[in-house]
Amino acid sequence: MQTIPFPLSVDSSPMQHGVRELLEDALNQAILVANTRGEVLFATRKTRTILQSWFAKGSENMIPDEIRIWLGKGDTSEPLLVRHPEKGEIEIHNFPLSVSGNLSFMRIEHRFVGRGPKALLALGLTAREAEVLYWITEGKTNPEIAIILDASPDTVKKHAANLYAKLGVPTRTSAARCALSILLPSA
């Protein structure tokens, strides 16, 4: 079994590049691996999209200064929270990959604060359907939504089915697209 070393350089073999692309696509999360110098060793597409929209001055090969400074302080037990009045907030969790702290594995969560479920009422949904749709756009499963809303999974499933019918869409993904047209600020 061949292992693929990090970082994968730009001049890596086509096979390694293909494996990297598959891994990035398979991980439907914002994942970032960086070293203490701030070099990006691995980033999913979702991560790159978030970093480019939130930290305009950044480079694709280096983590933004704000994240690098947070990592450099050493105490990353509490996540880094970055807020933007129109974009919502991102929360960055660090999981050191080495005892020396030379490598960091980070997960980035993006939330639309201030433009939450109430904004989705504009789609003609009930308040509860809007809450379910909001959490669908946040990538939560029906059982997770049930826990968040203190409801049964069957109830969440029923609300989801009702909101799909009201929106005229067949899937969670299409419902999320409808919601994001409301939740995302217009460019």
Overview of this protein structure:
The protein is of the alpha+beta class. The protein has two domains: 98 residues, PAS domain (Beta-Lactamase, 2-Layer Sandwich); 67 residues, Orthogonal Bundle (Arc Repressor Mutant, subunit A). The protein is built from seven helices and five strands; from the N terminus they run αββααβββαααα. Strands 2-1-5-4-3 form a five-stranded antiparallel sheet, covered by helices on one side. A hairpin with a 6-residue loop joins strand 4 and strand 5. Helix 4 packs across helix 6, helix 4 packs across helix 7 and helix 5 packs across helix 6. The radius of gyration is 19 Å and the shape is elongated. The termini are far apart. The N terminus is likely disordered.
> Main sheet, how many strands, which sense, barrel?
5 strands, antiparallel
Secondary-structure-based class equals alpha+beta
Shape: elongated
Mean pLDDT: 80
- Contiguous helical run count: 7
Q: What fraction strand? A: 15-25%
Number of domains: 2
Q: Helix and strand string, N-terminal first?
A: HEEHHEEEHHHH
Using the coordinates above, name the CATH class of the largest domain: Alpha Beta
Alpha carbon gyration radius: 19 Å
Please give the share of residues in helix.
40-55%
